[in-house]
Design a protein that fits this description.
It contains 18 helices and 21 strands. By secondary structure, it is of the alpha+beta class. It is globular and about 70 Å long.
């Protein structure tokens, strides 16, 4: 049973506690200190500031990156990918490979040995049943899974004993190890009896095996996690973690500067404040490449974007160089692909975008999009007018939107800026393709693997009943075939040929206009050890269990 608020906090008022910021780093309750493990002492707290609010605490329901910032601390996968791109065991005793007998040479048979002595946050032992249940949940057609790619190939799951499990694959699928590194195991004894797997209270009361237990969530304000002193792995080294939701980027930075938050995470430090932030006393600023690709994304279900000529013209009217240099201070790197430059599968030969308004006008003219009485182009009763949405309060993105809006107006295209709070923007509005267009940063890969089926395969369109993140509603039979082929290959050279072709086709079809690959500007107070940016995951709070104050 989870402790009550009074048991966790004594008579101390939690709201006052949160307002103390850096001043509250010392533990205030001796009762909590008495619960420390002899082998693993914990002290202090960490307050993490996010510009977006984590709202989906069930790790397998559709969600975005910020939610995973919490998932990584509540739950564990079988194994993880570290910042060097290597798999490391988590709930599994060892990472299954062909060499250790965990995977057959043909890639069809898997055997996973699990850690013993692991407990769920409610004290129930973790067993093979939980792994079997988690994989089968992804396969359940009744469940609105975040991802089915890879899991749908699993057959004949067999529990050997409480700490060993085997299964077969319908066909070899090279990305499955990376997919499992992002598949957080959930408890069968909590979720297994649900009549409708989509309608449980798990999102409000998540139970995991992670380094931290769920404490409480105050919507629109914060999420609090308490140390799990029974954690099987390294850490935790702090008594609690507080994820503060601060949507205004100026306020987020100010609270980092004044010490009200210890770590400035998603969306981090804005580029125009980088120089000032670098001079702040007792702060460490980290600049690191991320796999996130910023883009203007189109909903191809909308008539305005179904003509490829429109998407091509809008790309010609997108002045990426000025956006990067003037608004982002030259920090991020322009890109033409959905894969990060660091990936060995990145196609370096994609044509570079050209900013050319005259060419954009010519393409639209030739495609039959003629200016109407108000100057906005029309064709077959469809006006070339659309909304562009992103997270409200992100001033840099808003500047970018305004800049693009003017360029598009110059070619007879009307773009209305319509920004929304994060919980609305990235909820069904995004997940179920209710938007017109969006300015969004996306990590397309799963760890170090180049597979992007979850985003580009036609079966991954949630708005059409699929399971995945293809919110563009992008459908291309050749892409579907190439994704299937790429997933079946294990030799990097042959896989690279396939993913090079996929990148070429997507660059031509332009379901989204790639602008740049992120260079994240993150910061934390001096004295916080363990902060380890990882290009192979979507969020920097993937290893808070290793964080500690010195």
């Amino acid at each position: 049973m989870n402790p009550t608020k009074s048991e966790r906090m004594g008579d101390f008022d939690r709201r006052k506690f949160l307002k103390t910021g850096a001043a509250g780093l010392t533990l205030l309750m001796s009762g909590l200190a008495s619960k420390r493990l002899a082998a693993q002492e914990t002290s202090g707290q960490v307050i993490i500031g996010f510009s977006q609010e984590p709202t989906v605490l069930h790790p397998h329901m559709p969600h975005i990156e910020v939610d995973e910032g919490v998932h990584f601390n509540l739950f564990d996968p079988l194994f993880i990918v570290d910042s060097e791109g290597n798999f490391q065991p988590a709930l599994a005793r060892e990472v299954p490979t062909v060499e250790n007998g965990g995977i057959s040479e043909d890639g069809l048979k898997w055997r996973v040995k699990l850690r013993e002595g692991v407990k769920w946050h409610d004290g129930t032992p973790f067993t093979s049943k939980d792994v079997k249940f988690t994989i089968e949940l992804q396969k359940d057609p009744m469940f609105s899974a975040m991802r089915r790619t890879g899991h749908e190939l699993v057959r004949n799951i067999r529990i050997v004993n409480d700490h060993e499990i085997t299964w077969e694959m319908a066909s070899p699928f090279a990305p499955y190890a990376s997919i499992l590194s992002w598949t957080f195991i959930v408890p069968e004894h909590v979720l297994g009896g649900a009549d409708d797997p989509n309608k449980t209270d798990f999102g409000n009361n998540p139970v995991g095996t992670g380094a931290f237990k769920f404490g409480e969530r105050v919507a629109g304000n914060y999420i609090l996690l308490d140390a799990n002193h029974d954690y099987f792995g390294d850490g935790p080294h702090v008594e609690r973690v507080i994820f503060r939701y601060i949507p205004d980027m100026t306020v987020l930075y100010t609270q980092f500067r004044t010490g009200d938050i210890d770590v400035i995470g998603l969306q981090g430090i804005q580029p125009d404040r980088y120089e000032q932030a670098s001079q702040l006393p007792e702060r460490e600023i980290v600049v690191t490449p991320a796999a996130t690709i910023e883009s203007i994304s189109f909903n191809l279900g909308k008539p305005q974007f179904q003509d490829p000529a429109v998407r091509e013209a809008l790309y010609y009217a997108l002045d990426k160089a000025t956006i990067i240099d003037a608004i982002y201070y030259g920090i991020p790197e322009p890109t033409e692909s959905f894969l990060p430059h660091e990936s060995p599968y990145h196609n370096d030969d994609l044509p570079a975008a050209e900013y050319n308004l005259e060419k954009a006008r010519q393409i639209l003219d030739e495609a039959g999009w003629k200016p109407g009485p108000d100057g906005i182009r029309e064709k077959d009763g469809v006006r070339l007018s659309f909304k562009n949405s992103t997270t409200a309060g992100n001033s840099v993105r808003e500047q970018t939107q305004q800049f693009i809006q003017q360029s598009y107006a110059d070619i007879g295209v009307e773009m209305e800026i319509s920004n929304l709070p994060p919980a609305v923007m990235w909820g069904e509005y995004w997940q179920m393709s209710e938007f017109d267009s969006a300015m969004v940063g996306i990590v397309y890969t799963t760890g170090p693997d180049p597979d992007v089926s979850n985003y580009l395969d036609s079966s991954a369109i949630s708005a059409k009943g699929g399971a995945g993140q293809n919110t563009w509603q992008y459908e291309n039979e050749t892409i579907d075939e190439l994704l299937a082929r790429g997933g079946s290959l294990f030799e990097p050279v042959k896989r690279k040929e396939v993913y090079n072709e996929i990148q070429e086709i997507v660059r031509k079809d332009l379901p989204f206009l790639p602008i740049f690959q992120y260079a994240n500007l993150r910061g934390h107070k001096t004295g916080l050890e363990g902060f380890d940016p990882n290009v192979n995951v979507r969020i920097e709070t993937w290893n808070v269990n290793e964080w500690r104050w010195t």
